[in-house]
Amino acid sequence: MKAFSAITLLAAICAPVTGAPAQTFRTEKHEVRVVTVARGLDHPWGMAFLPDGRMLVTERPGRMRVVSMDGRVSPPIAGVPDVYARGQGGLLDAALHPDFARNRLVYFSYSEPGPGGAGTATALARLSDDGTRLENLKVIFRQEPKSGGGIHFGSRIVFARDGRVFITLGDRGQMDMAQDISVNRGQVIRLEADGRVPADNPFVGRSGARPEIWSYGHRNVQGAALHPQTGKLWTVEHGPAGGDEVNIPLAGRNYGWPVIGIGRHYHGAPIGVGTHKAGMEQPAYNWNPAIAPAGMDFYTGDKFPGWRGSMLVAVLRQQMLVRLELNGEKVVREERMLRDLDQRLRHVRQAPDGSVYLLTDQSDGRLLRLEPAR
Fold it and tell me: What is the pLDDT of residues 170-183, one digit of tens each?
């Protein structure tokens, strides 16, 4: 009976979605059709498009799968290390090396267990030719020190145009440490693709500073992407009861948490000294009250021409997709879309064909595709 159940479960996992009705939504620029590509994913967190059109999708409890465009979901890929799957921790983002077609290297972030609790780690591994396992795994970064808490792991991975890699780190709930550059808390870090520290990082050679730091004073950056024209890194970050931010992190700059910010802490107290302080950067945009922004991407495709050049942000708490219109580095308009979808959205990515994919944050999580309504 147990063998029969396992076979039945595997067949169900690998089967494409059938009978899932599409939903249509009107936005300011386009009528959008939302199609369920796959479901049954357990708190999916990260996704990356493979050259053959399939996708890698991570699940927070510690599984990585391949999903085809017809909705077939593979069994878990072997070789994923143990993760600290508690609270907000687990297997988190995934990204492909820019030369993946040749080297098949996958980068992924996760909450790594160890003495003292857990911390964000980033590893690279080769995806086997048949896509069933990770090979030659190498951890290229470990957040130090670890913490026993289960919140604020950050964890987005973004490759810059020069081949270096940005990784975002949350403050792990230890907010005062986000101002301490001798530890890894509340930062964006920058590494060579093999994990070495670039010689031109802003704190290289500075006594008492960790050389991998690019910027600091962040709370919990869960969205990051390169601007398609400038190549600069943009991020979105969770504030507390208010003060979610869009930032454009620059080398060596301090983004203020928890000394400055808008909104208030959950217990009602104001944040730090107020909204401004000399030597600390202002966000490019913010939300108050908080919306809980998660993954983000810039839209450059042809399927939704009215969105071209906009920034798309997946939102958890207020369950929507936000579109920000930009004029250079200024946000000039915000549109709140798909609110009637009634889903916590964890991530958003533009596909190579110009469609848009979303991940929903739930135990029966879905991979959704946005396409123009016909």
Answer: 999 999 999 999 99
Q: Where are the alpha helices (DSSP H) in 278-336?
A: none
Residue 47 near residue 66, CB atoms below 8 Å: no
Could you list the beta-strand ranges (E) of 115-197.
Answer: 117-127, 134-142, 157-159, 165-169, 187-191
Q: Which domain holds residue 39?
A: 21-372
Q: Hey, what are 336's tokens?
A: 């709140």
Q: Which two tokens stand for residue 68?
A: 């085809």
> Which residues are known catalytic residues?
152
Return the minimum-mean-pLDDT range out of 19-33, 119-133, 317-331, 340-354: 19-33
Q: Which residues of 228-238 are buried (b: 16+ CB within 10 A; e: fewer)?
A: eeeeebbbbbb
| CATH number reported for the structural domain that contains residue 221 in this entry | 2.120.10.30
Q: Is residue 13 a part of any domain in this protein?
A: no
Q: Residue 7: its pLDDT value, please?
A: 34
Inside any domain, residue 2: no
Look at the chain and report how many structural domains it folds into.
1
Quick check: is 5 in a domain? no
Please give the Cα distance from 300 to 303 (Å, whole number): 9
Determine the Cα–Cα distance for residues 269 and 175; give it in Å rounded to an integer.
14
Q: What is the reported pLDDT for 170?
A: 98
Q: Report whether the peptide linkage leading into residue 289 is cis, meaning its omega lies within 30 degrees of zero.
A: yes
Q: How far is CA 17 from the centre of its chain?
A: 25
What does the radius of gyration of the chain's CA atoms come to, in whole angstroms? 20
Mean pLDDT, range 79-106, rounded to an integer: 98
- Of 22, 10, 6, 45, residue with least CA distance to 363: 45
Handedness of CA 361, 154, 89, 148 (dihedral sign): negative
Identify whether 7 is part of a domain. no
Give tens-digit pLDDT for 136-183.
999 999 999 999 999 999 999 999 999 999 999 999 999 999 999 999
Q: How does pLDDT run across 11-54, given as a tens digit for each residue?
A: 444 555 555 689 999 999 999 999 999 999 999 999 999 999 99
Query: What residues form DSSP beta bridges with 141?
Result: 122
Supply the pLDDT for residue 293.
98
